Every structure is written in structure tokens, then in C-alpha cells.
Amino acid sequence: MRKKPVLYFIISALAILLLVCEVLIPEVGAATLLNEVCSILLITLLLVMLLIALWNIVKTRKWSNILLIAAVSSVMFAVVCVKSFNTVHDLIAGPEWVTISNCDVEKKSTSRGIFSLSYYLTGVGVNGESYRFRISGDEYGKLSDVNEVFVLCYKSTERIVEIKKGAKW
Length: 169
Fold this sequence. Notes:
It is built from four helices and five strands. The protein has helices at about 5-25, 30-60, 65-95, 135-140, and strands at about 95-110, 115-125, 130-135, 150-155, 160-165. A five-stranded antiparallel sheet has the order 3-2-1-4-5.
């Protein structure tokens, strides 16, 4: 009977640790893919908690709860699979340099409370492909007047490792 509270405590502590890591890891830089991995691990931990709850509810035979948790678990599993596929693809392919012209930086307000602002770099690549990368507030200020940038990025997860402005590249 004591194993369940200890297991929930461990999973909750790991989830809090992963949330803190996601907040502290910068949007742009060498550790940017680590942020994506923390996100995948967090969703996986929540999925494990739901599956444990599902296992406990199966014993009580409350079918409406079982179906609800099974449906939510299926959606979460699909999200983990897609995010994992993109992250693994980027780890295998490595970062690539992309030239982005017609650059624009955007500031979006979200409903996440204290972390309510998101910043994005958008533009068009040489091959006509549209790009939209999440950037930090510092990068937003630096790139507000730039028309062309060179970005070292992971294309599948849209994470930036390094940004060089204009003809410096």
C-alpha cells in the first residue's frame, strides 16, 4: 500500500524537474534540442501517470472513466510518437545552415500566465520554403531590423542553434 504514494511522489518530482529544465533552457543555443527532449519526457511521465490511474480504475470496472483515460492516453501517446520522431530525425540529420530572407520577428501573447510571451522568427528560405522558429526575447530585440539571416537549425523541430545576421556569414 505504501508503494503507490512513493511512485506518485517520484513521478511528480521528475515532472517538476523537467518543467524547471524547460523554463531554464534557452530557446536559441547549443542545448536547444535538450528542451525538446525534456518536453517529450514530461509528456511521457504524464502518460505513465495516466496509465497507472487507468490500471487502478480497471480494477473498479468504471467503464466511463476507463474509456476517458484510454482516449486521453492514446492522444498523448500519438503526441509523444510525433515529437520523438521529429527529435530523433534532427539528432540523426544534425543541424543545417539555412538562409532566411524577408525576415520578420513576431511577439505573440499566450495564456500561460507568467510565461505569456512567445517570440518567433519567420521568413522564406532560398528554396521558397517558409520557416517559423521560436526565439528568445533577446534575439527578438537583436533581429527586429534585419532582412536576411543565416540560421543553424534543426529543421524538423524548428529549433535554432545559432543565428548570424546579414553578410557576416
